[in-house]
Every structure is written in C-alpha cells, then in structure tokens.
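Sequence in, structure out. First:
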Amino acid sequence: MWLGIFTSFIVETTVISYHRQMNMQPKKCFVTKVRRNGNNLNALVCVFLVGVFARLLAFTFPYYALASISSDSLPEGKPLRQGACATVHGSSRLSTSAENSRRQEAERVKEGMSYVYYITSCPRAYDIIRERIQFYISQDPSQAAGLIHLFFHDCFVQGCDGSIFLEMWAVSEQNAASNLNSLRSSSFHIIDNIKASLEIACPRVVSCADILALATRDAIFMVGGPWMPMLSGRKDSLTAASKETIIANIPSPAMGFMELKHIFASKGLNVEDLVALSGGHTIGQTHCSIAASQLVPIMSSDISVSYGANLSRICLTQENSTSSRSHLTIHLDGLTPNTFDNAFFKNVIMKQVIFHSDAALLDDDGAAFYVHLFANNEAEFFQRFRLSFVKMSEIGVLTGNEGEVRLSCTMPNT
C-alpha cells in the first residue's frame, strides 16, 4: 500500500511537470481554491493529496486511477455548463445503472490502449488535434455533426479502424449506398489536414482511427457537449469493408425500432446506448429528399401537423424539384442546430423529428423511458451519452500488430 502511495507521488509529480510544460494544468472539480497564479508548492501538495486519494480509490475503482493521470485531459479555456462537472469526473449522485456502466467501462480497457498512449511518442498529439478542431469549429460549428456522422459510420461497419478513409477499392466505404451523399467531404478534409500536421510533428505515430475518435470527441465538447476521457491506441485497418457488410451494419433513417435494436445489439450496445447516441441528432442536417419521404404522398404520423407544414414550406416549394431536394438540406433541430444539448429528445416527444428511426424511439417502452428522462434532465443525458460514446469508440478496435499507422489515411502502407 505504501509503495502504491509513493508511486502515486512520482506519477503525479511527473504528470504535473508534463502538464505545465504543455500549458495544461490538470483540472479537478472539487479543487476550487488552487489557482495558477497562487502558491506553486500548495498546488503541488494539493494535487499530490488528490493523487494519493485517487490511488486508494483505485483498489476498488481502477477507472479513477486511469483518469487521474490522463494527458488526454479537459482543455483550458472552456467554461463548464451546469452539471458538466459530474459529466467529466463522475458524481456520487449517479444512478446505479450509470455506476455499473462505469465499472463495465473500466473492465473494457483493451490491452494496447491507454489514456496516455502518446505521452512519450507524440506528446503534442492531443493538443494538435484539439487546436485544429477548435479552428474548424470556430469557422463552422456544423462540422461537429459531420464528424459525429463520419465516426459513427466508421465504427459500425467493421469497428473504429479508420477503414472509412480508404479509397483504393472499386467500391470503397465512402461510395457505398449508405454513405454516398451522406458523409460530408469537409469531414474527410479535416481529418486529412490533422493527419498532415501530426506527420510533421511525429511521423507514423498517430493513427487515422485515433485522429477521428479524438477529433470527434473534441468537436462535441466545443459545441456544448460533455467532455469524454477517451483511450488511445487504435490502429488503422489494412482493408475496407465489403458493400454487403456496409449495408448490413449502417442503420437507415427509415428503420423501425426493432431493426435498430438488433444492429446496436450486434455492436454490444443496449437500448440505453441506442437512445443516448441517437441524441447526436441534436445537431446536424439532412437532405430535403429524406424529409419529403415523410410528407408525400401523405404526411407521416411520425410528425405533427404544424411541423409537417414547416417542412413543406422549406422542402416542397415549386422551386424545389424532386432532383434538387437531394442537394437541399434542412436542420434536424431548427432552434439550436449547432449546440449539443437535449433538445432532440424534446423534439421526439413533440413529434418534430424528420427520421422515422428517431420517431420510433417512442415505440418501445424501455426506449421511451430514456427519451423522457433525457428530455427532462440534460445532465443525465450528458452522463449517459459519455458512457455510450466511449463504448462505441471501442467497437472492433485494432491494437498492436492487428493493424498499422497509415502514412496517408486514404491508403494502407503496403
């Protein structure tokens, strides 16, 4: 035990030194009186004591030990929203279900992954990704939705392995029917540009799969969502998925609840995960051609009359022919389209969602429970989304010699 405490002192001192070099002071929600311009010795002692406490907790809850030494820490300069402190570091007020999910999360840590994976091989990796994403989001906040969409489509096909970037096959994942005209070209460009920056800083070290995962996480946070500590160490795949695999694994906006439940279950995700991750539709856009399918020849019972009339004014005007609707877009949430919040669930309840797959969340009692819970409690939604997003980010991950670190995201090295 004393050896563990002594080790905690060494680890915490090293991490503090590293974070100061990187201008990243570790944040702790319950340490409110330590300031960067205060007494450095007091700050060191404070964080040391926190580290000792964290190591003692580690005997029972190893997740806390991992999070406490993470270089993948909450960035400076963004004020936490109400309830965000519990979202980042956990809370004793969490439900039993959420606490059990956290224990399961700690048990899922795969060999070859770590919260400090790049701390020696590419110390500025997390900063470079974060800085680039901050630039892109400041220019266009809607890029966050594009990255979420891209990451989801990568993870659900053959795992979070960056296979969606590969372009060398006749039918790449990008050109499959489920992805064509669905994924933003700008999202691919963002990842390519970040990869180029990282190749300058530390060649052949950071995988495209990790870049996509971390960039998406950062983008969600920068548009108001929860901060999510995330493991790194994903390797890139050598091949892309087949057309059949893509069709079988990407949910369609027209799917019913049981179809959605089956696909999510095949990824190790339950109904709670399904509903929480559907909350990603609180930001983003879709094509008017999708909306039109809910309006003609008759209006779908999925949407309210007033919302249907609003969609018709936007997507079914005389100027918008059938062909032009495939290019015209509409916000999924018209009130806060670029803010990650719980508005999506309120929209589901009010029948103001475009996708049948979203409206179908009310067709199941278990799913409907979470829809109403998240609609009434944004902090609870953020906590559940964090857990579900992290679970999704570890689907089918390749580590060690199972994959590679591509020089270019669009093609394998050999």
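Second:
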Amino acid sequence: DLLAQQNFYDEVMGFQMVADQGWTKIYQTSLSGFIGLVDERRGMEDYADQKGVKLEWRIKEEIEGANLKSSFFGPEKYQFVFKK
C-alpha cells in the first residue's frame, strides 16, 4: 500500500519527499541518505511476507520533542530501529 507508506514517511518520520514519479517516492533521510518507496504493481519484485525489511538509524544525540521508541513496526511489516 504505497499511500500508507507515503503517509508514514511524511507524517510519522517527517522525511522530505525529494522525488515523486507517481509509482515511486524518494525521501531524503539524511544529508547523504535516501530511501525509495515503490508501488509493487509496477516495481520489479512482488510483495512477499517472508521478505521483511528492517531499517535502522543511528542517532548521535537526543532529538528534542521526538516521541520515538527504540523500535516499532510501520506499514507493510517494516521494522524500524533507533540506536544511539
């Protein structure tokens, strides 16, 4: 569900979308980091439950006002992990 993923990266993670090609969305996650979301109906790989994705971000300092747990699951069973 590309829209659910897009809403998650926009509203929960607060990342800036830097490219919108309709069926792909590219977000900037750091000065040199990017992540792309792809609509599975147009991408090269079909969605499969056993191909889970785990994303991990290293945080150098406290983020003021952030309400982040050490890990959580987002849309499509993606696991997000935050470490210091």
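Remark: The radius of gyration is 13 Å.
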